[in-house]
What we know:
The chain has a single domain (9-237), classed as Rossmann fold (3-Layer(aba) Sandwich). The chain has a 9-stranded mixed beta sheet with strand order 2-1-3-4-9-8-7-5-6, sandwiched between helices. The mean pLDDT is 96. It has 240 residues and is of the alpha/beta class. A hairpin with a 2-residue loop joins strand 7 and strand 8. The termini are close together. It is 32% helix and 27% strand.
Amino acid sequence: MNSGNMKPVIIFRFIAHEGAGYLGDFLTAQNIPWQLHEVDEGKPAPASILAHSGMVLMGGPMSVNDDLPWIAPILDLIREAYANDIPLLGHCLGGQLISKALGGVVSKNAVKEIGWGKVTVSQNAVAKHWFGEIELFNAFHWHGETFSLPAGAIHLLASPYCQNQAWSIGKHLAFQTHIEMTIGMVQKWCEAGADELKESASSIAVQQADDMQQTLPLHVFFLNKVANQVYMQWIQGLKS
Length: 240
């Protein structure tokens, strides 16, 4: 990939501790230019997405159904990217935003899901394209909502507590779960989410901070391998 004169990938951040994570490291290692767009600092959405080779949306504690001033402009940008074949990639809130923009519905999940948990890769050719030989992996979860699949989407991942963990349409990819985690991010989220963890302690799908951080480097090492596989496929679609 000739990245010398490539348009940058734009990565939208919605809260300070949910930044580019491992994806940023991956893009840098692949010599792919990228820039962080800090919505959480009040930065207005760009007027158009056409100056970018790809559009990425990270996680955040808000709901896509909240009445927030930046949601409508972001949904418009997602639709513009989709119409112009600019690859979309969403993580958690980001996946929900893409789903909503393309006609899916975001609603409350049956249970809150927080911490490390197994996800199963769907048995179809599209899932195999994204995940290769991976059939099952330990993903990181932090969500209370879930998305439906937009028209034309192919189901990619499921967990025991949430059926729709990822989908794709062509080169566009939406995750409910988090594959972008680093050790530092898990630690920061546990600090920032301490009250939520306490309140959700009775949920069958919620891990407490101590459990999440046991053998953390090993968990993250294996998750990075999964992310590497997926991101390597995603960058093949970037516009030069």
